[in-house]
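@channel sequence for tomorrow's demo:
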Amino acid sequence: MTDTTKTAKAVNYTPEQTEQAKADYLAGVSVETIATALGKTARSVIAKLSKEGVYKAKVYVSKTGEKPAKKDEHADTIGAILSLSDGETDSLAKANKTALVKIVAFMRQGQNQIELLQAELADLKAHHE
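C-alpha cells (generated this afternoon):
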C-alpha cells in the first residue's frame, strides 16, 4: 500500500516576516539588507517579494543611462532610411552593432543637415520674393 497523506509544506517566511520584507522594500531598503535582517538569501527575498507582487526588477540601461537599442532596431532604421527590402535589412542586422550604431548616427546627422539646408533655402526664397 502507498501512503497518500501529504506532508505539510515547510513555511519559509512567517506572515510577519513577509509583511516586514514588503514594508522595508517599499520604504527603499535594499534587498541585501532585508535578506540579512531575515537570515535569508537575497535571491530568496527577491522571490518572495516577486510572489507578493511588490518586487520590480531593475530595467537594464546602457552606460549613457538610456535603454539600449537592439541590433534589429538599428538595422530597421537604416533599412527605412535607405528603402531597403526586408531581405536586405535582415542581412544588415547580422553586422556588428557598433558599426550599425555609427551608420545610424551618421545618417541622422546627414538628415538633420539636409533639413537645416532646406529651411535656409526656404528662408532665402521667402526673402527674395
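heads up for whoever presents: The chain has two domains: 15-51, 71-128.
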